Fold Peroxisomal sarcosine oxidase.
Amino acid sequence: MRSLSHRCAVQEKELEGEDKISTSMTSLDFDCIVIGAGIQGSFTAYHLAKNKKKTLLLEQFLLPHSRGSSHGQTRIIRKAYEQDFYVHMMEECLQLWTLLEAETNTKLYRRTGLLVMGPERGQSFKLFKDTLKRNNVPTVSLERGEEFSRHIPHVTLRNGEGAIVDTTAGVLYADRALRAVQGYFQSLGGVIKDGEKVEDITPGSVVTVTTSAGVYRAKSLVITTGPWANALLSHTGLQLPLTVLKINVCYWREKVPGSYAARKRFPCFVHVGEEWFGHHIYGLPSNEYPGLVKICYHTGSETDPDKRDRQTDRSDIDILSQFVSRCLPGLDPEPAVVETCLYTVTPDHHFVLDRHPSHSNIIIGAGFSGHGFKFGPVVGKVLCELSLGQLPSHDLSPFKIQRFQNRSKPRL
Ligand SMILES: Cc1cc2nc3c(=O)[nH]c(=O)nc-3n(C[C@H](O)[C@H](O)[C@H](O)COP(=O)(O)OP(=O)(O)OC[C@H]3O[C@@H](n4cnc5c(N)ncnc54)[C@H](O)[C@@H]3O)c2cc1C
Ligand SMILES: O=C(O)[C@@H]1CCCCN1
């Protein structure tokens, strides 16, 4: 994955760093430094602090901020997936979310169920259905027609479309969750330094991190910088095949206020299959903004995270308008509010949870591909385990860097 010339440059840098440390340091500042206080870095720091490790969480912006991927009021949490390994991770995740609710006395999860709908004979719908059944996830299958409309009013299911509800699913209160996990980390003695951008990393048996305000050293480093993952990894001689996408987060007005409301038991939903130009469309019941339903397209246009406001493509919104007109006739088919969020996408849409291939005390959590929030508690746990040199408590084979062997971005 790395060129020879660059490997040499990194080794030189390491030696320089180790040299500096041996002359100027007598003790370490921290057991572990985590870069990036989004949901993944914050949960990693939380688990490290629970393991009694002296931990520093660095964030480039003043907290809270809305420039990355973890802001906004809501996210979907679900067991409905096409792959077993996500369902397995979700078992423990649900327990850990409940634990955080108890630890911080904060309501973070509202159970609404998740309606999976799409062409019944399509590969994607079948995969969702089979995975739910195989893993004994509680579900309700709904027949198109009177039965479906009685349970889920104001949604049009077309001829040939199937519907299955994952009854364990619901909404996570995202901003609240981020505050809760960061607050609990601090209550355990963890240190958060926000408004401090990491400008350099010197790998070595002691890792040195230079920010806009200081220099810190630790035995291990965790990089969870979301859309800026490659910017940080460039200091370590590694680039991953990640694409940053700007997502238009659209809210659509109810014609009759409350008709798609969480309090009326309207579920989260995902329309799967190839029909909408090859990408899923998903939504959450009206809740955070009264009378507005959040519905998004599961892709967007490529962007630089520092220049995202220059990306003005709205072709996804045209697709969503068509979807709303066709499937959700109780909504005005023009978005009332459009916010922005970023995805960092891998070629197979699975996460990266792994050690750096050349520096075993640098751990990487990246490429959450628009579906990582719900897994924060388990992602944080396994990144913590990797940074402590422990055996991870989940099978991380789907998340290894090795899988990109022939697909990495141009070498540095
Ligand atoms: C519109 C939208 C809808 C989504 N819906 C869902 C959903 O329903 N369910 C779900 O599970 N997931 C969902 N996701 C995905 C989920 O939100 C992300 O996977 C998750 O938030 C990624 O978190 P992160 O910590 O990796 O990244 P981020 O939240 O971006 O955190 C990275 C942090 O690193 C900081 N950083 C970067 N560079 C530096 C530096 N040099 N120095 C210091 N700090 C730095 C950044 O400022 C940032 O705060 C959605 C995402 C979007 C955008
Ligand atoms: O992670 C989720 O649950 C949402 C809905 C489906 C597409 C990805 N984002």
About this structure: The pocket of (2S)-piperidine-2-carboxylic acid (ligand 2) is lined by residues 76, 78, 270, 280, 282, 298, 370-371 (CB under 6 Å). The radius of gyration is 22 Å. Residues 1-26 have pLDDT under 50 and may be disordered.
